[in-house]
Amino acid sequence: MDRTGADPFSAERARLVDEVVEEFRRTGKYTGRNEPDPRVVRAISRVPRHAFVPADMRISAYVNRPLGIGHGQTISQPYIVALMSDFLELQGEERVLEIGTGSGYQAAVLAELAAEVFTVEVVPMLADTARKALDDAGYKNIHFRIGNGRDGWPEEAPFPAIMVTAAAETIPDTLVEQLAAPGRMILPVGKTNGPQNLVLVAKDADGRVAKTTVLAVAFVPLVGRRN
Questions:
Q1: Which residues is 219 bridged to in the sheet?
Q2: How far apart are CA 90 and CA 69, in angstroms?
Q3: Quick check: is 76 catalytic?
Q4: What count of Cα atoms within 13 Å lies in the side-chain half-sphere of residue 57?
Q5: CA 170 to CA 201: how far, in whole Å?
Q6: Among 14, 72, 136, 166, which residue's CB has the most CB atoms within a 10 Å radius?
Q7: How far is CA 35 from the centre of its chain?
Q8: For 3-88, where are the alpha helices, taking DSSP H only?
Q9: Burial of 116 from C-beta contacts in 10 A (0-12 / 13-18 / 19+)
C-alpha cells in the first residue's frame, strides 16, 4: 500500500532520498556501506516524515538533519535512520525491538522493513503522539510500550534485530540478552556531551557476541535507570 499518496511533499521526499543515497557514498569508507539496500531506500521514500514532526516544523521535514520534537528529544537525521536500518539487514519476516519510539518516524521505517515492530518509549506524551501518527499513517504491525527502554521487552524476546535510538554510556546487558542468536543490534554508545559512536552488536548462532564501531554520531541520552 502506498502510504504517501498524493501530497505536497512528494518532490521533497524524492530529493531527500537522493541525498541519503549520496551520503552513503560519501561515508562508505567509514561505514563499509557505499549504498543502502534497495528495501531501505524504498522505505525512506514511502514514509511521510512530515507526519512525524510538529506542525510548525513541517517545512523542514525533508531536510537531512535531526529536528527537535519536544521533551528534550529529536527525530533523527534521515541518513542515520537509513544507515541504522541498513545495518540490521532485515529481510521482511523479522520481529524488531526498537528502544526509543520518539516521534515514531524510525518505527515507521522499520515497519516497512520487518514483519513486526515492538517499540518502547519512556516519555508517555511522546508515546501517545507517536502512536497517533503511526495509526493515522496506517501502520498496523507496530506494538507499543511505555517504560524503561533498558528493560527491553522480555515477554517477546528474543528478537533477531534490536535498534536503540538514544545513546547509552555502555551497551545494556539486558538488551544483549534479548538479542536472538543469530541477531544484530545497532545503537549509539557514549556520553551525553562526549564522543559517541554507532556500534553494531552481532550475536552468532552459538551466542558469541562481536562489537564493531561504525561511525561517530550525536544522540540524546538513553533515559531510565541503569541495569
A1: none
A2: 27
A3: yes
A4: 18
A5: 12
A6: 166
A7: 18
A8: 10-31, 38-46, 78-88
A9: middle
Instruction: Give me the phi and psi of 8, to 5 degrees please.
Output: -70, -5
Q: Summarize pLDDT for 17-32 with one digit per residue, the tens.
A: 999 999 999 999 999 9
Angle, in degrees to the nearest 10, between helices 78-88 and 38-46: 140
Task: Give me the catalytic one of 10, 45, 76, 103.
Answer: 76
- 129 vs 118: CA distance, rounded Å: 16
Share of the chain above pLDDT 90, in %: 86
Q: What is the pLDDT of residues 175-210, one digit of tens each?
A: 999 999 999 999 999 988 889 999 999 999 999 999
Contact between 75 and 105 (Cβ < 8 Å): yes
Q: What is the pLDDT of residue 3?
A: 56
Q: Which residue bears the cell 507499543?
A: 144
d(Cα 217, Cα 129) in Å, to the nearest integer?
A: 26
**Do 41 and 17 meet the contact criterion of CB atoms below 8 Å apart?**
yes
The CATH homologous superfamily for domain 10-217 is Vaccinia Virus protein VP39 (3.40.50.150)
